[in-house]
Amino acid sequence: MMNARESYSESCNINVIDDAMIHINNKLASIYDFPLPQKTTSGELKEFVEMPVKIDKISHSLLKKLETLTLKQSESTKNQNVQPIENSREVDTVQIKYYVRLLSYVEGEPLSSLDVVTDDHMFDCGKLAARVSEALKDFSHPTLLARNSVWDIENFLKLSDEEYLSRVSDIQFRRRLQLFFEKFEEEVVPMKEKIPKQAIHSDIAEKNTIVSYRHGKQEISGLIDFGDLMYSYRVCEIANCMSHVGALRKNEINDCRVVLSGYLSETELAEEEINVLFYFVTARVVLCYLRGLYELGQECNMPNDYVRKITNDARESLGKLLTRLDDQRDLVRSWTTQY
Questions:
Q1: Which among 14, 21, 9, 1 has a CA at the least distance from the CA of 199?
Q2: Which domains does the chain have, with CATH numbers?
Q3: pLDDT tens digits for 10-22?
Q4: Three-state secondary structure call for residue 47
Q5: Rounded distance, CA 197 to CA 273, Å?
């Protein structure tokens, strides 16, 4: 089900992610644990294999239609109407080609699994973001710039399309989101050229930040999931971390300051980065919310409690963050006050 162009693209993605994990291990392995690519039985870092996968028949028919369009076959073939099977509980077994690779295991558990998340955990997440950012600032790869992701802040304004906003049933809240998009375009877009860019992990969130028992307590000990690695604005590393980790205790306005303080204990933010910080933190939450609504609205999707939780949590966070849009400069000033 993967054509030659797709397989080449996926191979490049795996290569850049593998190289980034090796790079950051060389820099920070004495402090944190990260996954490392391992050789397969054939001695390679990845294998292209065909595997049997069970899939509901609606999804199968949609995948076949998508494959037909992707392969750019003749117009007559493109326009064939592949009808979904009405009974979505029926299952097909299909052969799908995947790239398979091995990664070393990172001991510990996700920060999100802890019953109690302390100020120290949040502060140390900020330190982790700063150290990862510093370690990746000199990372380069031939295909890094070519990676394109819906999670890249460069694509944020695309979410202002009706395709996404129409899924927000609360008309008043939809208008607040529209206002944020307008302010983002007005305040952030003209400044983008002045904001430093580099390779970033981009998803230092509670589910990817690993804690383990060290020095008599649970400490931040590692980071996993480099799948969203991208070349983007340096400040996005800490902004994304603040948007996720800062919301763990449902006290975003204060806890974002704790996370940022950890970051600022290791490095600095340029004035231009501080000026867009609120917008980047809030944009990440908007992205989680609107993408979540979009995913939940897809007919071929099976029930997804994880996406539903992320979407609901993002909605709750936005209820607090968007109320500070008019005085965001004062809020950021309070965040940059050392914890």
A1: 21
A2: 4-103 (no CATH), 109-335 (3.90.1200.10)
A3: 666 889 999 999 9
A4: strand
A5: 11
